[in-house]
Amino acid sequence: MALMGASDPLGEAEAIKEKPFLLRALQITLVVSLYWVTSISMVFLNKYLLDSPSLQLDTPIFVTFYQCLVTTLLCKSLSTLAAFCPGAMDFPTLRLDLRVARSVLPLSVVFIGMITFNNLCLKYVGVAFYNVGRSLTTVFNVLLSYLLLKQTTSFYALLTCGIIIGGFWLGVDQEGAEGTLSWTGTLFGVLASLCVSLNAIYTKKVLPAVDGSIWRLTFYNNVNACVLFLPLLLLLGELQTLLNFSQLGSAHFWGMMTLGGLFGFAIGYVTGLQIKFTSPLTHNVSGTAKACAQTVLAVLYYEETKSFLWWTSNMMVLGGSSAYTWVRGWEMKKIQEDPSPKEDEKSSMGV
Fold first, then answer.
1. Distance (Å) of CA 84 to CA 4, 5, 77, 215, 298
2. Which of 258, 252, 229 lies closest to 71 in space, CA to CA?
């Protein structure tokens, strides 16, 4: 059970390709299915914990804090288990170093914003609108890449961003027309999209502090989050709300809370697994298709009726996101295939 890519990824990719076609197809189907089930289940479970009429618990920060706590404990447990069973499990050694924790802290603040705004968005909007509400991540990726990294974007990529923005505004308009729009939830969705983009950018800068290990970064991010959430719980009065909660001693409640934490941990693993067995491009396409399936399931589960324009807004967001992924993949492939002018010049000069 390898939870950490310590071995050579190129060697692993070649080993996967050498397997018979039917075996590879079966593995890919199982991995993609695992990603879909984990991701969709996590969204529906979080919606239950955050906004269930039967639960009636208004503590979104505590729910997020508890999920971070579960992830921290799981990381530490797997690290300890790997130390005792080095041949059976591949997981990095985790020891809390305060200097590393301080180095990761700026990213952890962004990470806290990302997971908190995600949950707050889900609390105030329906699962069906959740993907549209957080659909501006790609747009923020392009904007922040230019502002922070000075990276320009092609016309075709900008065109796909325009489609996403159009789908987002149409979705907001249709939610308003149906009387189900939450401006608070939509604002949290936009902030979540911004934090997701910032998290991707700053993760690359912070990775050297944890020796390039995603699992070490996950551990330190969640440890920092647990510490930083504590004063928020006190300031927002959620601890008092929790003490007055009628189901505080319920095994079902804590079981669902822990299950939510397990799904939060598992999504990082199955995402890496899907990329390993397919490719980053295929992973993005799979994520888009999963979002579409999740929207349909939400409409059916909650017995909602949506207009043609509402569905059009979803198709615009999903289509624009897929088109952006394809355009960026095509551009990167073209850059790899076409040598730069400087390389051509060196080759002609015999250098």
1. 16, 19, 11, 18, 43
2. 258
Could you tell me if 145 and 153 are in contact, meaning their C-beta atoms sit under 8 angstroms apart? Answer: yes
Residue 256 in tokens: 């669902």
The whole-angstrom separation of Cα 125 and Cα 181 is 7
Q: At what angle do helices 21-51 and 9-18 cross, to 10 degrees?
A: 120
Q: What amino acid occupies position 160? A: T
On whether the CB atoms of residues 262 and 72 are closer than 8 A, the answer is no
Q: 150: phi > 0 → left, psi -120 to 50 → alpha, else beta; which?
A: left
Close Cβ partners of 29 (under 8 Å, ≥ 6 residues apart): none
C-alpha 121/C-alpha 64 separation (Å) is 13
Tokens of 164: 């996403």
Instruction: Specify whether the backbone of 223 is left (phi greater than 0), alpha (psi in -120 to 50) or beta.
Output: alpha
| pTM as predicted | 0.86
Question: Does the pLDDT of residue 215 top 70, yes or no?
Answer: yes
Nearest 5°: the CA angle 282, 287, 289 is 95
Supply the pLDDT for residue 22. 84
The answer to whether the CB of 218 falls within 8 A of the CB of 100 is: no
Q: Cα(74)–Cα(68) distance, rounded to whole angstroms?
A: 10
In this prediction, residue 288 has a pLDDT band, given cuts at 50, 70 and 90, of confident
Place of tokens 């249709």: 174
Query: What are the φ/ψ torsions at residue 2 (nearest 5 degrees)?
Result: -95, 115
* Distance of alpha carbon 322 from alpha carbon 335, whole angstroms: 20
The type of residue at 296 is V
CB-count exposure of residue 64 (10 Å: 0-12, 13-18, 19+): buried
Q: How many residues does the chain have?
A: 351
